[in-house]
């Protein structure tokens, strides 16, 4: 019988095996570099048994910060031909070879939680990290707002690569001149579980555009066909702003502007409420069109400190009716696909972020129920990258860092 203790041991082993010394890869083969939000989650997992290593993870992430404050979504510490697109395709010149886009800015919120667990040198580590985290927040506020909501300029930025949220925007894009390239992801895992070639052409096309514009945000704002205000970016930025304000106040930093930013982002979050859908939704900034998607990111409102009775009703219904919640796409939607990456599967990492938000907002019963269900899913089906929400079957990469970290920091504790 697998016990909670032995699962804890297995989860630690995964973190240790995926540890490259000062950063952690998400999984061997498929993802051989340091990913931004994966790394923040890894730090939380390490904090359960090696607090110094947790800080090192975050410090390495911010060692890749660009001089303008941006923190890239991938840091290519060591070349690896097993992943495409690599540093040569992105053409960036930060301090460490990197991609030119961001990912959900959860690092500040995770740093605050690591700090809470650190009774020793935590304040010293955090004091050094704080100005860097604040600079990234300011970069987002400067370049990515639309009516106060935070926009994504590439599906990969949200971490929800092929979510149906982007379908209408992607359908309008012409990628006929993208040229020849070879995908590597489908050599590691089943292609039926991955984004389609249609989507990949557009992912690469957007990388080519950014590179041609030297990742100049003002030029991208003018010229990119992809600009979508999204719940993932908006709620994680809002949560981070609140955590930056709390940490800055406690550490004695100048927090001028953060209260204003929080108000701006709250107003932005309100612009993501799709009344017809009855949920937080993504909004194409260029066409003004709603995506019409209830995704797992819609439930990140609580992480952003925003309460919603309607989202709570939906969540309760999802917890009761979906065998392995929370699905990344509404099972009643035409676009739902139980296996294809972010078009239906359940991701333990998003569940934890929803759960932490619920807890923060005082919704203890729902937070506990979600943690319990996520724990059962992992103990029955292992530390997979993601899971079929109807059958629970594991999919994608195996021995996945963030699923192990989620077990250690949250789901295995119920
Ligand atoms: C997936 O995204 C990468 C691109 O960033 C990919 O498919 O190649 C997403 O699941 C993303 O959320 C995650 O951070 C990354 C690494 O686990 O993989």
TrEMBL record:
InterPro entries associated with the record:
6-hairpin_glycosidase_sf (IPR008928), 6hp_glycosidase-like_sf (IPR012341), Glycoside_hydrolase_63 (IPR004888), MGH1-like_GH (IPR054491)
Source domain of life is Bacteria
What does the UniProt keyword field contain? Glycosidase, Hydrolase
**Ranges where the Mannosylglycerate hydrolase MGH1-like glycoside hydrolase domain occurs:** 31-403
- Family label: Belongs to the glycosyl hydrolase 63 family.
Q: What is this protein called?
A: Mannosylglycerate hydrolase MGH1-like glycoside hydrolase domain-containing protein
């Amino acid at each position: 019988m697998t016990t909670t203790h032995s699962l804890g041991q297995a989860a630690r082993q995964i973190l240790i095996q995926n540890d490259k010394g000062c950063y952690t890869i998400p999984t061997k083969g498929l993802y051989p570099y340091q990913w931004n939000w994966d790394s923040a989650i890894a730090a939380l997992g390490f904090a359960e048994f090696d607090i110094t290593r947790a800080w090192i993870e975050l410090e390495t992430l911010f060692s890749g910060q660009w001089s303008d404050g941006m923190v890239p979504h991938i840091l290519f510490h060591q070349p690896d031909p097993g992943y495409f697109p690599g540093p040569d395709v992105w053409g960036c010149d930060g301090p460490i070879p990197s991609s030119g886009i961001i990912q959900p800015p959860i690092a500040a919120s995770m740093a605050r939680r690591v700090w809470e667990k650190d009774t020793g040198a935590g304040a010293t580590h955090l004091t050094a990290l704080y100005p860097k985290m604040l600079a990234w927040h300011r970069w987002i506020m400067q370049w990515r707002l639309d009516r106060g909501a935070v926009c994504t300029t590439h599906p990969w930025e949200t971490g929800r690569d092929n979510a149906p949220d982007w379908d209408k925007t992607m359908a309008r894009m012409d990628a006929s001149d993208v040229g020849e390239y070879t995908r590597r992801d489908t050599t590691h895992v089943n292609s039926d579980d991955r984004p389609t070639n249609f989507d990949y052409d557009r992912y690469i096309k957007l990388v080519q555009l950014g590179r041609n514009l030297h990742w100049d945000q003002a030029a991208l704002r003018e010229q990119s066909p992809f600009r979508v205000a999204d719940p993932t970016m908006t709620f994680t930025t809002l949560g981070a702003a609140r955590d930056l304000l709390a940490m800055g106040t406690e550490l004695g930093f100048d927090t001028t502007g953060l209260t204003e930013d929080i108000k701006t982002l709250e107003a932005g979050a309100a612009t993501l409420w799709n009344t017809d859908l009855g949920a937080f939704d993504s909004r194409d900034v260029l066409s003004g069109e709603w995506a019409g998607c209830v995704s797992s990111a819609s439930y990140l409102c609580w992480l952003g400190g925003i309460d919603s009775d309607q989202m709570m009703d939906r969540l309760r219904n999802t917890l009761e009716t979906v065998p392995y919640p929370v699905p990344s796409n509404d099972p009643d939607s035409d676009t739902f696909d139980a296996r294809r990456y972010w078009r239906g599967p359940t991701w333990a990492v998003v569940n934890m972020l929803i759960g932490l938000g619920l807890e923060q907002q005082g919704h203890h019963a729902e937070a506990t129920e979600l943690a319990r269900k996520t724990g059962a899913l992992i103990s029955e089906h292992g530390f997979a990258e993601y899971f079929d929400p109807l059958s629970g079957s594991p999919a994608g990469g195996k021995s996945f860092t963030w699923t192990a970290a989620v077990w250690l920091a949250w789901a295995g504790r119920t």
